[in-house]
Amino acid sequence: MIHTIIYEQDNEIHAFEISGHANSGPYGYDLVCAAVSAVSFGAVNAVLELCELALDIEQGGEGGYLFVAIPTNCSTHQKQRAQLIFEAMVVSLQTIEREYHKFIKIKRK
Known about the structure:
Blueprint: E1 2-9, E2 12-20, H1 31-50, E3 56-59, E4 65-69, H2 76-99, E5 104-108
Parallel strand pairs: 1-5
Antiparallel strand pairs: 1-2, 2-4, 3-4
Helix pairs in contact: 1-2
C-alpha cells in the first residue's frame, strides 16, 4: 500500500510524504507505483525548474519513500506557483486513488 500524506497549513500545502509500495503487479510491471512515481517526481521537477525553488527533499535509499517540503524562506510568487503545481499533483494522485483504492491512500493533515 502506498500512503500519501499532504501536510497543509492555512489551506496551503507546505509538504507531502509518500511511502510504501503498491504491490499491484510484479516488480517492473507495477502500474500504480509507476503512476505515483511519475506524478510525484514530475511535480517536484516542475517546481524545481519552473519556480526556481530549492525544495527540501528526502528519499529512501531503496525507493518507497519521498518527503518534500517547501522552504519557508521562498518568495510569495514562488510559493504561489509551487502551490498550483502541488495541487495539480494531488488531483492526479486522487484520480489514481479513485481507480486503485486498494493500493493507495491519501490523507490531508
